[in-house]
Amino acid sequence: MSADAGTEPPPSSGTPGIASVEAALDRLRDDLSGFGLPYTLAGADSAARTARIVRDQLGDYVLPRLKAMDAPLLAVVGGSTGAGKSALVSSLVRRRVAVSSAIRPTTRRPLLLHATGDGAWFDGSRVLGSLAHVRVAEGAEPTAAGMRTPREVEVRSCSALPSGLAILDAPDVDSVVDENRELSATLLAAADLWIFVTTASRYADAVVWEHLRAAAARDVVTAVILNRVPAGAGETVANDLRRV
Ligand SMILES: Nc1nc2c(ncn2[C@@H]2O[C@H](COP(=O)(O)OP(=O)(O)OP(=O)(O)O)[C@@H](O)[C@H]2O)c(=O)[nH]1
Ligand SMILES: [Mg+2]
User: Fold this and answer.
1) CA–CA dist 121, 213 (Å, integer)
2) Which residues are within 5 Å of ligand 2 (an ion), measured at CB?
3) Domain locations in the chain as residue ranges
4) What are the pLDDT digits (tens) for 123-136?
């Protein structure tokens, strides 16, 4: 089911019992938002981080999905810097929607592409409510490489996408830019599907596996794409990636 741009997303299904679960989870998220650990005791940092992750997971995935089971699926393309995420997203929709370059990292502002007519699902704070949503015209030039726009997500309609599917080109999970890594965690938490892009030179990096383990822990559907493999090494690298 889809909604036209400018209209309100449909209300939740109204299934008996769902409303009380929603209310309880809303309260839990609000409690976690106000949760503070003012004393520098052992374990305080890690407890605060866990609280933040649970709050984001509730706000960015569990609650939005519970409130709108028929909202479009969000496929988040994440992975190492330079793995070719932006090149892949542009290739999938057959137009240059994202800048791909030799600068590391290139993508600083996540780009959410949705089908024509699905706009209303993504204009409000239903998904990625902790980020400012910046709507950009469908035909506008892609955002320049390295442009710093903290805690924003660019939202664009894309007529190449089928109704009910949205794709998000995420910043990297492993560059020196701390805010990119934080942002990636928020984006991956909102995903119905992770498309995890790695390369022949990065697939054994610890950070890659941290994310894949997190995906397994969340039981989220994940596709791993092995990109930028030197000629002749394809089978060897792919087999080793499968093994690990
Ligand atoms: N040879 C080859 N080069 C590729 C491929 N995909 C991407 N590249 C190149 O790899 C470089 C990085 O591509 P990007 O699309 O910017 O990579 P990214 O994963 O989006 O990087 P960040 O935005 O920094 O996270 C660019 O120079 C691309 O032209 C590919 O399949 N083959
Ligand atoms: Mg990119």
Assistant:
1) 29
2) 85-86, 106-107
3) 12-69, 71-243
4) 888 888 889 999 99
| CA gap 65, 88 in Å, rounded | 26
What is the distance between the terminal CA atoms of the chain, rounded to a whole angstrom? 39
Nearest-atom number in ligand 1 for the CA of 171 is 25
According to the model, what pLDDT value does residue 9 have? Answer: 55
Q: Starting from the CA of residue 102, give the closest ligand.
A: 1
The CB of 173 under 6 Å from ligand 1? The reply is no
| Cβ count within 10 A of residue 82 | 24
The pTM of the full predicted model, rounded to 2 decimals, is: 0.84
| Ligand 1 proximity of 195 Cβ (cutoff 6 Å) | no
**Best residue among 86, 90, 195, 198 to mutate for probing ligand 1, ranked by most atoms within 8 Å of CB:** 86
Using DSSP, state whether 106 is helix, strand or coil.
coil
Which portions of the chain are predicted below pLDDT 70?
Answer: 1-16
Fold (CATH) for 71-243:
Rossmann fold (3.40.50)
pLDDT at site 15: 62
User: Is residue 196 classed as helix, strand or coil in its secondary structure?
Assistant: strand
Q: Are strands 132-135 and 152-157 parallel, antiparallel or unpaired?
A: parallel
